[in-house]
Amino acid sequence: MPINSFTDYPMNWKPNSAELKSPLYTSIAEKLESDIKSGVLTPGTKLPPQRELADYLNVNLSTISRAFRLCTQKGLICATIGNGTFVSSDAGLNTYLLKEDSFPQIIEMGAVFPESEPYDEITEQIKRMLIEPHFGKLFDYGRPEGTFWQKEAAAKLLKKAGYDANPQNILLTSGGQNTLAAILASLFKPGDRIGTDPVTFPGIKTAASMLGIQLIPIKQENNEIARDGLLFACKNENIKGLYLIPDYQNPTTHTMSGSTRKTIADIARSNNLIVIEDAALSLMAENIPAPIAAYAPKNTLYVSSLSKVIAPGIRLAYVATPTIYTKKLSEALYNINISVSPMMAELATRLIISGTADKIVERHRVYTKTQNQIVNSYISGYPVLGEPECMFRWLILPERFTGESFEAEAFRAGVRVYAAERFTVGKAKPIRAVRLAVTASGSSTKLEEALNIIRNILENDEGYALY
Fold first, then answer.
1. pLDDT > 60? residue 3
2. Alpha-carbon dihedral of residues 236, 238, 240, 241, nearest 10 degrees?
3. Which pLDDT score, from 0 to 100, does residue 376 have?
4. Rounded to an integer, what distance in angstroms lies between the CA atom of residue 315 and that of residue 364?
5. Is the dihedral of CA 412, 416, 417, 421 positive or negative?
6. For the segment 347-363, what is each residue's pLDDT rounded down to a tens digit?
7. Helix or strand or coil: residue 65?
8. From the CB of residue 204, how many other CB atoms can be counted at a distance below 10 Å?
9. What is the DSSP string of 135-155?
10. I want to staple 398 with a disulfide (CB 3.0 to 4.6 A). Which of 342, 351, 355, 464 is the partner?
11. 393-416 burial by CB neighbour count: b if 16+ within 10 A, else e?
């Protein structure tokens, strides 16, 4: 190993070797993480080649490789074949997109929530359950398998979103994001790679980072996964699975075409990919193509949750899983204790069987359409993407903004929105855009107030031509 004698080594990251401690690879990884989170290394920065960095620090190449691997598993850096290693586009950003009460004066358009309402029908259903003689049994331990009656109800619900699932292959879980974490924990291992859209739901990003799984952005055409991009990722990036939101993609709002769904299913079958199909908002749609799971049922885990389409407090999700994965996923749900409570499962089942769930979904749909009409009237002429039934919109910004700068300016003016950088995967270049949650403000009056602020910020950009 050469002894480094350079005093002005031509690299954009030069950690001080005197500060390193044993074991060296963890010390280098900790320094790299610290410099990324403190802003010394900004998103998109290209890191020195591993061999040059090893020479500079006078350590073995394997030490640098292990350090980079640790940071890659945390989602802090990403490597692309033939291009090198870069600081991830979302490194250092908060990806926990939850509603906050710390700033009551801020109008919420960041976190996605359905309309705020009393949910009287749910209350009445609970009251009827309370007077039944065997109600106390619902406080026993629950299992992800559920009862056949509950699984049949789940299948009935999934069919409304276009998927004719076998009730025997449906598991019950305590929420969609918990389901995603359990799928990653049970079917993948640290170091595995999963393909995604270049911008995607932050929940999958945090779960993958926690488990040491790397997300790989797949090349797109017309806002959809491109066939050649997916084939390239299979061959060169060695992806083991895919995570996709075909209906109302979060955050871009895009609904994937039927032909692309079939193409993805074909490639998944031929390459033995595990497809995670997130159908969080599919029930809100009135007319959508059949899901990917319909074309590749032996490869696809189809996840449908109730918190967005029924009520936030109903933390319940259904996952239709191929038989080959049912046992592993069921054991993971049980072992990490995220199975659903029997009372919640029974409540959801009765809401579905009685038709109450359909009525609530329809009411959410009508309300969302009304809120989107307000959005269209206040931001008319600006490129704000999204269908009438989608609970969020994707606002493309003027060139003078980044997503981060617009988010900060909106917050200072009294509105919380979320920047594209929070959703960006790996080295993908962030789009100049922000996500607007149109049903989260609590009222049409609040929404109008927020949109007026957003409109004023946009109009202050004198060089921006209206569409």
1. no
2. -30
3. 96
4. 17
5. positive
6. 999 999 999 999 999 99
7. helix
8. 26
9. GGGGGS---TT--HHHHHHHH
10. 464
11. bbbebbeebbbbebbebbeeeebb
